[in-house]
Amino acid sequence: MKNLFKLFLLLLFLQNTAFAQEESATTIKKIYDNAITTHQAYHQLGLLCEKAPGRLIGTPNSFIAVDLMKKYLEDLGADTVFLQAFSSPAWICHSASATMNVNGKEIPLKMDALGPSASTPKKGVNAEIIEVMSLDEVRVLGREKIEGKIVFYNRSMNPTYYNTFRAYSEAVDQRTAGPGVAKEFGAIASITRSVNNNLDDFPHTGTFHAEGDKIPAIAVSTNDAEKLSAALKINPHLKVNIKVDAEDISTNTYNLIADLKGSEKPDEYIVVGGHLDAWHNTQGAHDDGVGCLQSTEVLRMFKDLGLQNKRSIRVILFMDEELYQSGGKAYADFTRENKIKNYFALESDAGGFTPRFFTIGASKEIVSKIQEYQYLLQPYGLEKIIAGGGGVDIGPLKKLGVPLAGYRSDWQRYFDMHHSANDKFENVNFREMQLGSAAMASLIYLIDQFDLAE
Ligand SMILES: [Zn+2]
């Protein structure tokens, strides 16, 4: 009798599980159908790119972007939309240019300032350049060879890596730490080869660590890095002139937050977000307009499809991922001060191409639990769910024990655009972006429905 009862319970459990699986598959299909037939978010991305390009923290366009997206979230029918205020240092680039002197002629270089580059005098800084392939090379050359010169970092991304993020992370120290190391040995400015896989004319900017005094720091396009290197072989005393007009300011700014109230546990928040700021030289379409609009799509679809979220869904459009990463820290502080329970956080900030996978930054148990859902997303090309990080903006929540996730799309073309004028709306494909929105909404649906491992 006892065994019969056990068998009955087991059958009931299996039946319920099968039913839940079928129901999930049906809901996920609805999410994908809706995403791929609704153009609202894509249009809004176009508007954001057109009305507020170069929306770096503290710039007029960063405030235009906040207004534009606040109104959009209100129109979507979020239950609450508010601005989470914080103050932060910022940096405004007014202009930047550079030339190389070849046979007495000033040849302009395709370049841009890195943030937060120091300004130069009006006439610029003018000096011989010294080409290096690594930070260590600067250390080996030492003050004797470096002092008074402009250091030129010219190591390219490794094209043989399938994973372009790996190639990026191995090359980017020339940008993030290059100016600081050059300064340490007495250089008066630094030039970094754009961290870009291609040979083209787009300069790619980005941030560098600047503690204390800093030097003017720029990036040149990969084509011009090649030219500079070739010219230097002909004339080892080649001089470059760099002009940067920029200023350090402090600003009061905002993360933009919108909530869709949960039906059972409204005080638990499932965070989904991207960053609203973008470098001064770009529309910031893939980085990270797409991530912002994919996040707002999660809220829109839960509402439009009546998905009945148990927990509150919180969309956060973070300010300042690019320069000082102050928005992510400010939200974590806000969370601590107000004892907010963030149940889970998902970030999209790695491009809006064809969906590939999710990374999960949480305990082994939670990673395995979430991996159980992968088969439901497999039919839509989401190939895996693996252990990994969440992202820069949600990163500070990790210390508070929040399970994190990062959305990843195909990465072969991302660094063609990243932090350059090439990152523009026309390079975002509607279907690719929306398949990502659907993948994100589906993951959040599953986590909210079935809970994480306790
Ligand atoms: Zn980004």
Give a quick set of tags describing it:
454 residues, alpha/beta, Aminopeptidase, Glucose Oxidase, domain 1, 14-stranded mixed sheet, 14 helices, 14 strands, binds zinc ion
Topology:
Elements: H1 2-37, H2 40-51, H3 60-76, E1 80-102, E2 105-108, E3 111-113, E4 125-132, H4 135-146, E5 150-153, H5 164-171, H6 173-176, H7 178-184, E6 189-193, E7 217-220, H8 222-234, E8 239-260, E9 265-275, H9 285-304, E10 311-318, H10 326-337, E11 341-348, E12 355-361, H11 364-371, H12 374-377, E13 384-387, E14 404-409, H13 414-417, H14 430-450
Helix pairs in contact: 1-14, 2-9, 4-7, 9-14
Bound molecules: zinc ion.
Describe this structure in words.
The protein is an alpha/beta fold. It is built from 14 helices and 14 strands. The radius of gyration is 24 Å and the shape is elongated. Zinc ion (ZN) binds next to helix 9.
Question: Low-confidence segments, ≥5 residues, pLDDT <50?
Answer: none
Residues in β-strands, percent: 25-35%
Helical proportion, percent range? 25-40%
Q: Structural class from helices and strands?
A: alpha/beta
Structure at a glance:
The chain has 454 residues and is an alpha/beta fold. It has helices spanning 2-37, 40-51, 60-76, 135-146, 164-171, 173-176, 178-184, 222-234, 285-304, 326-337, 364-371, 374-377, 414-417, 430-450, and strands at 80-102, 105-108, 111-113, 125-132, 150-153, 189-193, 217-220, 239-260, 265-275, 311-318, 341-348, 355-361, 384-387, 404-409. 49% of the residues are buried.
